[in-house]
Amino acid sequence: MNTRFISGFALTLAATVTVLTPATSAQAEALTLTDIAGRTVTLDEVPDKIILGEGRMMYAIAAISEGNPFDHIVGWKDDLVLYDPDAFRKFEAAFPADAERMINFGNPYAGDFSVEAVLEAEADLVLLDSGNLFKAEETGLIEKLDKAGVPVVFIDFRRNATENTVPSLLILGRILGDEKGAARFIDFYIAEMRRVTNVVDQIPAEERPLVVVENAAGWQPDFCCWSFGPYNYGRFVELAGGKNFASTLANAYSVTLSMEGMLEADPDHVIGTGANWAEAKPEVTSTLLGYEGDPAVNAEKIAALAARPGFSELRAVKEGNYHSIYHQFYNSPYHFVAVQQIAKWLYPEDFADLDPQDTFERLHAEFMPYEASGQFWLSVD
Question: How many CB atoms lie within 10 A of CB 70?
Fold first, then answer.
């Protein structure tokens, strides 16, 4: 069993369960919790009007909500609309009136986020991503909201996703009043992660293949390359049994790679991330993975990515081990699907009976308010 994954989960679960209790008997309706940034936050009552610092937090909210996931949400940053329009249209079709009423509060880590608009919406909670704690402090946002009497809670499905997903889901379940839904999804999450980690634990370190992850392949057509250190997709690769190349270069969330360094490393597999960014940024050459992904279109796009100067010389490309996977798994509690698919690419024989597509469809059938569709990964022919 993967002791790092399981022990980390156990510690964070124990800590979160301990703090997510009523503050005092005199404040029976109050909630006191420690958020992912380690801040103690007291809410006078279960919040009714919540602002999402990122629209993509809806991935998690939808998965644990037993009713309408928009019930307590008044607005968001419009990243879901811009960078995952396929998913937004799924929400829009399922909850047209709610999707239409969402207020765009702008970027909470930049100057276009208005505290006055927060007060005008009568919001009683702002949810932010813990990876942007420094930016929120630097801009004075937390201090301004505190003075306005609006609490802030940090969650994390991106930076230390495999460590923070369970406690983040517990926090969401409590503040949304969906604790049973959160517990049900957490059980599913752990079971699906262990289908990989229980097998990978038996694979010796020296036998693990070297993997290069290209973050947002084709986002800047003439640029190579962004990657992840031992975080996010870099961590997904490690849990799937691979050696993440960028982790050997820096212990950092984001690592810049050179083509020369990649050619010298000669990885066994290259995995690029892609999504439907073309609507917001038409010049991208990425695979357009997502709920409206077209296999024929994406086959052409991944072939073009693999044919870029330098990439075509890589052994991984020549051997058909150049892959593309849905970028937005990197910011959602569904990353167990990505871990499963990566494991299947790295160890097709060990995971012959594992079907990530079936996992993805069961996720939607059991937890999501809309059906699975589209394309979320592929390999070059």
Answer: 20
Read off the pLDDT of residues 106-120 as tens digits, 9 standing for 90 and up: 888 877 788 889 999
Q: Are 53 and 128 in contact (CB under 8 A)?
A: yes
CA atoms within 13 A on the CB side of 151: 22
Could you please report the per-residue DSSP string of 236-280? HHHHTT-EEGGGGT-SSSEEE--HHHHHHH--SEEEEEE---TTT
- Helices assigned H by DSSP within 201-250: 233-239
From 205, 243, 193, select the one nearest 354 (Cα to Cα).
193
| pLDDT tens-place string over residues 129-178 | 998 888 888 888 889 999 999 999 999 999 999 999 999 999 999 999 99
DSSP for 34-58, written as a single string = E-TTS-EEEESS--SSEEESSGGGH
Residue 190: closest CA among 12, 19, 375: 12
Q: Which helix (H) or strand (E) holds 262?
A: helix 259-265
Task: Count the Cβ atoms, other than its own, within 10 Å of residue 110.
Answer: 11
